[in-house]
Write a structure and sequence with these properties.
Helices cover 38% and strands 22% of the residues of chain A. Chain A is an alpha/beta fold. In chain A, the strands form two sheets. The first copy, chain A, has a six-stranded parallel sheet, with helices on both faces. A three-stranded antiparallel sheet of chain A has the order 8-9-10.
Chain lengths: 279, 279
């Protein structure tokens, strides 16, 4: 396994593989890899001849008061996990190479970027859209893999690829969870013991929503209210949003229907967690 | 020569050529081809194995009150010129395929898009940046050719390709002119006889600036004032801007230096013309 820092070298390696007719599978990450990432990496490995994982804590997707500096960086551990998972190249560029001082170009996805998390993290999805476009151009994979945990990101990336006529195929893989239901996230590392318990509010409220829907409830605001009550009972929890939206255009739905997405973002102490459920 | 309307077919043709190791040269145009376009097309043909010209009057780069509807569309004539010039494929997509109703993704280049013409045509360069990104992804050429006549566009396209790590190489070719100096432009077709004479104000004022600089003048505002006087003497002329800027970052320069760009946009009657000179 190689760890490649140079953008140019990464491009050359990809071209070399493609010229041999080998398909490239790509998993873009910010590192601090957990089983969720590893499930993407394993799928990418199975379905392709050459396996690239990028590790890049992308500054343009963090707001000024967000956790860019604090975000966990554990390259050695990540490299070991990648090696075990059969990764061929870790692409690990510098922020300076990705965004030189005269950098000016951004990819914007209207509406979808302003919904849900976009309201609370202005500029976040512009940063995501831009870095993903750059990474896809550098690595030029046949397949790229993302997690359903970041539901809005997944919708936006599909949209960019379609709208900008990029040739990559996108696969969205299911959210992995701890046994007690907590969605895997690198940010779970921030939680202390009490917060770890309160963090269950997210997955529990989604399970509650699922149960209510199974019982025949369809009114979004009633379901959201029940979810809100459950989460508010957790001492360290503060809700950014709970929303029931169309799974494709992310517009709010008054009634739960066949292709709804229930999404929420909740602060647990100083840690912002997200989770979602597709109906 | 094929005329290809389908985006998917164009992508397949390009992939086929690339898999045979053939290099693709690409000239994106809005049609109404003149000698300026043809000089790009000939260069692209000489320097590559496979030659693609796109003809697409891109709606997203026209403002509401601009000449989108009026813009000349002469496919048959263009096709004849392309055929004679050895073009392999004219890519001639529909606006509906390029921008389906749920289209949402735009490429933005900060600062560079707001300078010069950007002030007078808000959204124009966003449209240009977006369509060029799309076309480059669809055609995936080795080389793409643009004219220096659209100086700001050329700077912006170079920037996108660098910033988004696109693999295409960009060549900017010199402005072609009529014998009397008028820069070739599809929009020259709009001019009546009187306006055609007044339109010489643009190239004449650039020649005047060149002479002044040769005489040792370096003060930008003095040079611009002389240019302005010359153009104001033309009855049908109304100046949008005359500017002396850094040729790379498009920021105004107080003194003409080694890498300056003198650029101007002037309305001649109802026709907006641009021209420029690199020092």
């Amino acid at each position: 396994m190689k760890i490649v820092r140079s953008i140019r070298l990464m491009t050359e390696i990809s071209r070399g593989e493609k010229s041999k007719g080998r398909s490239i599978g790509f998993v873009p990450t910010m590192g601090a890899l957990h089983e969720g990432h590893l499930s993407l990496i394993r799928s990418a490995g199975k379905e392709n001849n050459f396996l690239v994982v990028s590790i890049f804590v992308n500054p343009t997707q963090f707001g000024k008061n967000e956790d860019f500096k604090r975000y966990p960086r554990v390259l050695e551990k990540d490299a070991l996990l990648c090696k075990r998972a059969g990764v061929d190249v870790i692409f690990y560029p510098t922020a300076k190479d990705m965004y030189p001082s005269e950098y000016k170009t951004y990819v914007e996805v209207e509406d979808l970027s302003q919904a849900l998390c976009g309201k609370f993290r202005p500029g976040h999805f512009r940063g995501v859209a831009t870095v993903v476009t750059k990474l896809l151009n550098i690595v030029s994979p046949d397949w790229a893999y993302f997690g359903q945990k970041d539901a809005q990101q997944a919708v936006i990336i599909r949209k960019i690829v379609t709208d900008l006529n990029m040739s990559v195929k996108v696969e969205i893989m299911p959210t992995l969870r701890e046994k007690d239901g907590l969605a895997l996230s690198s940010r779970n590392l921030y939680l202390n013991q009490e917060e770890r318990k309160d963090a269950l509010g997210l997955s529990q409220s989604l399970k509650l929503a699922k149960d209510l829907i199974r019982q025949g409830k369809t009114d979004s605001s009633a379901i959201i209210n029940s979810m809100r009550k459950l989460i508010r009972a957790k001492k360290s929890a503060r809700i950014d949003y709970i929303a029931i939206v169309d799974a494709q255009n992310l517009k709010p739905l008054k009634k739960v229907s066949g292709k709804s997405l229930i999404a929420l973002a909740v602060w647990i102490g100083k840690t912002r967690l997200i989770d979602n459920l597709k109906i």
